[in-house]
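User: I'm writing a short report section on ligand binding and want a predicted complex to refer to. Could you take this sequence and guanosine-5'-diphosphate and write out the structure as tokens? A short remark afterwards would be nice.
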Amino acid sequence: MIVALAGGVGAARFLQGLVNIHREDDITVIVNTGDDLISYGLYISPDTDIIMYTLAGIVDEKKGWGIKGDSFNCLEMLRRYGSEVWFNTGDMDLSTHILRTKLMKNGLTLSECTNKLSKLLGVKIKIIPMSNERVETRITSEKGGMSFQEYLVKRSAKDRVTNITFKGINEANPAPEVIESIMSADLIVVCPSNPFVSIKPILSIKGIEEALIKTKSPKISITPIIGNKPVKGPLDKIMRGLDLEISAFTVANFYRRFIDAFILDESDQNLEDRIVSLGIKVHLMSTLMRGIKEKMQIANNVLRIAKELKK
Ligand code: GDP
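Assistant: Sure. The structure tokens for the complex follow:
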């Protein structure tokens, strides 16, 4: 079983390549839910949805979120009513949130809902939210505290981030099968995701990082940074705010307690020696995943590196 730790877009791109070269039912994805929000009473799980829509082949690849060809009539009508709407959800996308919320009201856990929705969309990969308890990623900035979606979407990531916290993290338990799948995995992949807002919440839930350290399987991480810039999203702004060096080295260093190998973009070869000095094997390659060929190539490389690590 391959187990992947995932945020949104970068993870979805990698997984799209992986499902083309590996049996879908032999892949489990543990997804960040710190970015989840409740809007108009609806439970929205952005990272889970990006992954689910991508694997179901219905994601809007241009936007990087939502469903392709979706309309936004409901939001327009809400605006006509004078409502302040800042989190964009298309009409088809809304049906996911409506159904999830209904299922949760009927007593299903978030993992049960995720399982049900992804099966209904024909996704065979097992998608598990990191926890069934609510964890909320909170951004502290010079403008005060706010949720991650307020920071990213409502305020367009314009505030200087001075701290990131995860409300509810100490009470949250890993969702069923999270620890078991890590412990029995043949390979763990940390997808190209934002380390500080997407992967850190997963690692901060009790028992998860310990399980990653303990498990005997090879552990490989793929850089989310190419040429000292993230491919997408606010990672550079967040790192600058936190006074961190904006480079793949910082990412590798952050995962150093458990990863065996780090996939570094070939344009960042100058960082290789520093990452190797952390005791991490470095593999250089092109890591930009535009088309399916590039996605499959990275996935192939990950499987090859895993084999080498097992020798
Ligand atoms: P975000 O920071 O809120 O967008 O959170 P995510 O966890 O979804 O992070 C997406 C990360 O994936 C960003 O840091 C991107 O740089 C990275 N990413 C997206 N597409 C690619 C790609 O094609 N190649 C690589 N190496 N990274 C990617």
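A remark for your report: The chain has one domain: 2-135+171-310. The domain at 2-135+171-310 is CATH 3.40.50.10680 (Rossmann fold).
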